[in-house]
Automatic annotation (TrEMBL):
Binding site for substrate: 13, 16, 43
UniProt source species: Sphingomonas alpina
Gene label: purE
Gene Ontology terms, MF aspect: 5-(carboxyamino)imidazole ribonucleotide mutase activity; lyase activity
Protein family according to the UniProt entry: Belongs to the AIR carboxylase family. Class I subfamily.
Protein name: N5-carboxyaminoimidazole ribonucleotide mutase
Length: 161
């Protein structure tokens, strides 16, 4: 996307992309400039430090962070930026994402991470929530978001089959 990114989507591994692409898809649908990066608190700590400490200065307004297993990425990102951080627990093979969820949601008071549902639904909702945060100060985006929600409502069938 050519515009300066307003939302950063980071994830612990390329293996998380299958989940996190749904956040990116939503933002693309809503016309919100965003970037996607692989950043790991465990495997690339300096990359995370550089990313989180430079995020606000680069113009990002919200960070979406997805990780699985011992998912320290969202919390560590939140510890190094005042931007809102939305955490997506990626579904792990061993524990079905319960490990990811507990790792992300139980932050100590003072460093919030807005934690979404495990997996695809969480990624979709992270994208929508990030857009709605931006829409507080962007009327055109607010109207696109409301249109998206109306279209979703209109697309719900009345009959099950
Ligand atoms: N939870 C984290 C962090 C982190 O929190 O920094 N870095 C990688 N990971 C996670 O490890 C899982 C397996 O990664 P691989 O598939 O690369 O082995 C991924 O879900 C990733 O988010």
């Amino acid at each position: 996307m050519a515009d300066t990114p307003l939302i950063g989507i980071i994830m612990g591994s390329t293996s998380d992309w299958e989940t996190m692409r749904h956040a990116a898809d939503i933002l693309t649908q809503l016309g919100v400039a965003h970037e996607t990066k692989v950043v790991s608190a465990h495997r690339t700590p300096k990359r995370l430090y550089d990313y989180a400490t430079s995020a606000a200065g680069r113009g990002l307004q919200v960070i979406i962070a997805g990780a699985g297993g011992a998912a320290h990425l969202p919390g560590m990102a939140a510890s190094m930026t005042h931007l809102p951080v939305l955490g997506v627990p990626v579904e792990s093979a061993a524990l079905k994402g319960m490990d990811s969820l507990y790792s992300i949601v139980q932050m100590p008071g003072g460093i919030p991470v807005g934690t979404l549902a495990i997996g695809k639904a969480g990624a979709i909702n992270a994208g929508l929530l990030a857009a709605s945060i931006l829409a507080l100060g962007d009327l055109a985006l607010s109207e696109r978001l409301q249109a998206w929600r109306t279209a979703q409502t209109d697309g719900v069938a009345t009959d099950p089959a």
